[in-house]
């Protein structure tokens, strides 16, 4: 027999299982175990450090290009195909620069994959479509490496067309 809210009869007695459930506090959301939370925090901190190290490396390379007479026209330009770290002007032409940062120059260079090169080409094509001369604009693809000590190496024409 069910009891309605407007029913003035005394409430029905609870079954023993219902009494136990009524006496136990409501279930709280289960928190992540401490080890998983610490690992997640460490990953986030490493990601933030890598992001800031990358920004610092790009800023350093940007200043180097400016010092050498190549004005940087765009930094971290993003198109539909991806991002180009730096775009500098070389007279009437453009220099597309991919910046790689790691502990050593060799490790930084090894981080440039064929997939990234294809992405850089596609992004450069998108950017060139915005230029007055379009794909007739002279271009160069450089790779700039920054090691863990902040030293730099710029390899001009490092990325050639396949």
TrEMBL record:
Origin, by domain of life?
Bacteria
Q: Where is this region: Disordered?
A: 15-34
Q: Which HAMAP family match?
A: UPF0102
Stated family: Belongs to the UPF0102 family.
Can you say what this protein is called?
UPF0102 protein NTA49_14375
Q: Which organism is it from?
A: Pseudosulfitobacter koreensis
């Amino acid at each position: 027999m069910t009891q309605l809210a407007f029913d003035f009869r005394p409430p029905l007695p609870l079954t023993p299982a219902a009494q136990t459930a009524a006496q136990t506090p409501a279930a709280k959301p289960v928190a992540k175990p401490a080890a998983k939370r610490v690992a997640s925090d460490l990953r986030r901190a490493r990601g933030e450090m890598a992001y800031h190290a990358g920004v610092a490396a790009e800023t350093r390379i940007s200043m180097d290009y400016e010092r050498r007479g190549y004005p940087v026209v765009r930094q971290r330009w993003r198109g539909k195909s991806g991002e180009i770290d730096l775009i500098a002007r070389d007279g009437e032409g453009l220099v597309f620069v991919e910046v790689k940062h790691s502990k050593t120059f060799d490790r930084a260079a090894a981080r440039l994959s064929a997939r990234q090169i294809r992405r850089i080409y596609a992004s450069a094509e998108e950017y060139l479509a915005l230029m007055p001369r379009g794909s007739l604009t002279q271009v160069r693809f450089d790779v700039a490496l920054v090691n863990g000590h902040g030293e730099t190496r710029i390899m001009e024409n490092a990325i050639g067309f396949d």
